[in-house]
Design brief:
three-stranded antiparallel sheet; 14 strands; about 10% strand; extended
């Protein structure tokens, strides 16, 4: 697989790393200087402009004499990946775009922790056969690696790109990032500020940046990443409440959790939810759970160890009541109840599982499905549909339309065509045909298979064929003309003007 691939990840040297040979014919390029960290903004810019000049480059030869440190590479967090994906000048993880961009821990390099060579005692020149970077990507002709190259505790950083054609852009990005960092930093603690006024000002500033500028700010500053995680958690709390935040917190990585705990407001909510969840299985806890809003109940079912069954059942039952399913069913509004039930079960697996084992909901679902099947059955007569429709109140009709929209729409079209046909007397064949031709195309298509219209359409076409027949005598035309009312004569004139005008001239009819 000839070509270039960018590899993006964290990276570094361990005490046991050693060295490994560069595969024959492979060009390996590093953007970080040896024994340094790669600044986040520099690493992101590499992917944005697809930079092709490294701080150090190695060319592999057959005898394996060209060696590099066997760096350990580790996958980014989800946020770091999304930042670099936003900035990248090529679609990430794609197998069809050139050059390629792969993340360690992604689709093509699935191991979240790997090395350039994962089997240094087994691999021999000129090729690697291991699951490391050199073994997995050995078919490429050039690997460009965007990662740190320092050891644990390394303070030196690579803060510029070698051969950058526009270094001022990077300097502007640094200035913007620094300005943002001053908005969010608590200098005394060297942490994200807890001052709500400052946090609001920072969010306003951040929201005014375009998406790529936002990504560059986050790529440059670990503090900005922590701020972003805090704001994301706060947004989640605003949408989903205390328990939604708590579940979000539990599902996050330890790094994200630590960032969220830096905010006193969010930390207090998390601590309160944690303490409350410990007593959930007690009688008092069950009583407390029963009065919670269903939104909170649902979140709690995700983390309430030992209480899943009763908590889920109570949440599902309360959700059904709040949606009015039982009340509608008790009031005889079967279709409205069934549609409310369907909406709940389609969007929530807990409610769906509960309903599968509830005799009450099973009966309701069966009744609704029976109506659905009856209306969808091609053998059901339109007259029977009309009789059933006439008995339904307005709310039930609306529910039926939601249940089988296409069936009801087609039936309404047929009924409309039937009513329209009844408006024309039997002798007004051409008049009715003219009206049909003035209607939308989909209505004409429906009429072509409608029993009340197919015969009429054939009769009208037969008349037009007769009047276009040059062998037909003018006397026969006159005899037919005299049998028609004025409306039919006018319709024929509109349908076949040339034939009618020529005939009138020949026989002297004004």
């Amino acid at each position: 697989m000839a070509g270039v691939v960018y590899v993006a990840s964290h990276g570094g040297l361990l005490a046991t790393s050693g060295k490994t040979f560069v595969p024959a014919g492979l060009r390996v390029l590093f953007y970080a200087k040896p024994e340094t960290r790669l600044d986040g903004l520099v690493g992101a810019r590499v992917l944005e402009i697809l930079h092709d000049v490294g701080q150090e480059t190695f060319f592999g030869v057959k005898d394996g004499s060209v060696c590099v440190d066997n760096y350990t590479l580790q996958g980014f967090s989800d946020l770091d990946v999304s930042i670099r994906t936003q900035l990248a000048g090529v679609e990430a993880e794609s197998a069809s775009h050139a050059p390629r961009l792969y993340f360690v821990g992604g689709n093509h390099l699935p191991a979240s922790l790997t090395q350039l060579c994962s089997a240094p005692h087994a691999c021999r020149p000129p090729r690697h056969r291991c699951d490391g970077i050199f073994g997995t990507l050995g078919s490429f002709t050039e690997i460009r690696i965007s990662c740190c190259r320092g050891r644990r505790g390394t303070q030196k950083s690579t803060t510029e790109l070698s051969g950058d054609r526009d270094p001022r852009t990077l300097h502007r990005d640094y200035a913007r990032s620094q300005a943002f960092s001053w908005l969010i930093v608590d200098v005394r603690r060297n942490a994200v500020t807890t001052d709500e006024a400052k946090l609001h000002a920072a969010k306003t500033y951040f929201d005014e940046l375009d998406p790529k500028e936002q990504a560059r700010v986050l790529a440059d500053s670990p503090l900005a990443e922590i701020w972003f995680e805090i704001e994301t958690a706060r947004d989640h709390w605003q949408k989903e409440g205390d328990w939604g935040l708590y579940v979000y917190y539990l599902a996050s990585t330890e790094k994200v959790r630590a960032g969220i705990r830096e905010n006193p407001f969010l930390k207090n909510i998390i601590v309160a939810c944690r303490d409350r969840s410990k007593a959930l299985c007690s009688e008092e806890g069950k009583e407390w759970f029963a009065i919670l809003p269903t939104r909170d109940q649902r979140w709690i079912t995700k983390i309430a160890t030992g209480s899943e069954e009763w908590a889920r059942a109570q949440f599902a039952s309360k959700s059904l009541n709040e949606a009015g399913v039982r009340a509608l069913s008790d009031a005889g509004r079967l279709l409205s109840a069934y549609m409310a039930l369907r909406k709940l079960t389609q969007r929530d697996r807990i409610i769906a599982a509960y309903c599968e084992n509830s005799p009450e909901m099973i009966r309701l679902a069966a009744a609704g499905q029976e109506v659905q099947a009856r209306w969808s059955d091609e053998n059901t007569r339109d007259a029977d549909r009309q009789a059933e429709w006439d008995l339904l109140p307005a709310e039930e009709r609306e529910a039926l339309i939601q249940l089988v929209p296409d069936v009801v729409a087609d039936w309404h079209t047929r009924e409309y065509l039937r009513g329209a046909r009844a408006q024309f007397p039997d002798l007004w064949t051409l008049t009715a045909y003219c009206w049909l031709l003035s209607q939308p195309e989909d209505l004409q298509e429906a009429a072509a298979v409608h029993s009340d219209w197919t015969a009429l359409m054939l009769q009208a076409l037969d008349v037009l064929v007769r009047w276009a027949d040059h062998e037909r005598s003018d006397a026969d035309r006159l005899a037919e003309w005299n049998t028609w009312p004025s409306e039919e004569r006018e319709a024929l004139t509109g349908l076949a003007p040339d034939a009618v005008v020529a005939w009138k001239l020949r026989v002297g009819i004004p």
